[in-house]
Amino acid sequence: MTVKDSVTAFVNDYNEKLNQLNEKLQSCSNRIEELQYEIRFLKEKEVPEATTIRVLQGDSSLEKKLKKSLSRFEEELQELLEEQIVLINAIKQFKYQSGEKVNEFAQLLKEERRLNEDKAYSHMMHFKKLYVDEIRKQSAVFHEYKDLSLQLETIEVKAGIKKNVYSTITDNTTKMPPHISGYNGYYLALTPNEIQQLINKTFRPSDVAYLDKFKHKKDL
After folding, report:
1. What range defines the domain where residue 165 resides?
2. What tens-digit pLDDT sequence spans the chain (220 residues)?
3. How many domains in the chain?
């Protein structure tokens, strides 16, 4: 297992366990709120009304029932308040212990990251060389037509029709993406900012959409 796999497993396990603890704490807190409401309602309304019934009508059954419920709720509340404290401390302890384990992975991940980033950059540079080689290879057609035009212009000069030879190779690609529509979609350059966006995955799909029309070699 690579360090990356170990770190991924560690992070997933951390998130799963922390979520479980947080869910228990949330469930406990929710029940505490419910019990506090029930207890307050019993003390402030239901029990006093039941006491009134006992005093005025001589029937104590409802009062006994409500006081029994009140006692049960208060007992459950006390247990949950203790459980809440335990869970809060457990979460703090879990986060601290997990934070200490991070140090064990950090250096190993740094070393593995450097090796794999070097490999990724090497692959990028390999395909950049292929890209440059292809530009040089395909540019041969520009030279062929320039040479032929040069020969024609030379004949015109010798005939006295023209005074000079003007044939040159023009770079008919845009230097800036916003002008791409005026250059048949031809944009070969990549600015440092665009490279950073590609590496950091901060580019928008529309930023590289101009490449879509060229993605199938058979269509070129």
Report:
1. 139-170
2. 899 999 999 999 999 999 999 999 999 999 999 999 999 999 999 999 999 999 999 999 999 999 999 999 999 999 999 999 999 999 999 999 999 889 889 989 999 999 999 999 999 999 999 999 999 999 999 999 989 988 998 999 889 888 888 888 888 888 888 888 888 888 888 888 999 998 998 988 888 888 888 888 777 6
3. 3
Flag whether the pTM goes above 0.90.
no
| Phi, psi dihedrals of residue 170, rounded to the nearest 5° | -105, 135
Are 39 and 98 part of one and the same domain? yes
Whether 94 and 128 map to the same domain: the answer is yes
Q: Are residues 18 and 57 in the same domain?
A: yes
Instruction: Select from 218, 213, 211 the least CA-distant residue to 187.
Output: 211
User: Based on the domain organization, do 179 and 151 belong to the same domain?
Assistant: no
Q: Tokens in use for 199?
A: 């590496």
Instruction: Output the CA–CA distances (angstroms, integers) from residue 80 to 28, 43, 57, 130, in the order listed.
Output: 6, 20, 37, 67
Phi-psi region of 191 (alpha: psi -120 to 50; beta: other; left: phi over 0): beta
- CB-count exposure of residue 71 (10 Å: 0-12, 13-18, 19+): exposed
Q: What is the 3-state secondary structure (H, E, C) of 26-50?
A: HHHHHHHHHHHHHHHHHHHHHHHHH
Same domain, 198 and 210: yes
